[in-house]
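YggT family protein structure dump, as promised
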Amino acid sequence: MNSLTNAGLFLISSVFDLYMLIVLLRFLLQWARADFYNPISQAVVRLSNPPLRPLRRIIPGFKGLDMASLALVFALAAVKLILLISISPLAAPPVLTIAILTLGEFFSLLINTFFWSMIIQIILSWVFTFGSKNPSLAQIAQLTEQLTAPIVAPVRKILPPMGGLDLSPIPVILLLQFLEISLSGITLSLTDLARQF
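structure tokens r here:
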């Protein structure tokens, strides 16, 4: 591949990854009952609204969750892969392989969103211990805490804070890393299997 092709692959991947993250955050923040009026939440809503408004006419919500957001993330992942394949010199894989890779892309994004939210939350908690009162950082910290609360809460019941030290994020982070590594192996195995059909 020449440098122009590599640049195109990087640009497509970066743009799609960023917008997929925004749309997925729209779903996750709603699922976690995060503060809708947080400026970051408002930015996510504004950026994701244009494609979601018409899509909601076709895909209704389910139990208060915006299922159109999930559908859009899947669609964006599929389009991204198709575009990357179309400008790549490699042979186009079967449709089943693309479907498997799309699922892998979605779950990898989901896992990494939680993982980096946890990391950001931990870093900001250290920053605040040194007396930082930056309002923008406080908004980010609030949102990451609300976003990760549903997955940390079960662990916190088993491993409650001890002496003001909360260790519950550690097993959650390790589990997320384990899931990401396992997902890579599962996706590879399934794509190999799909090529046999």
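The chain has two domains: 1-91, 93-197.
lmk if u need the other ones
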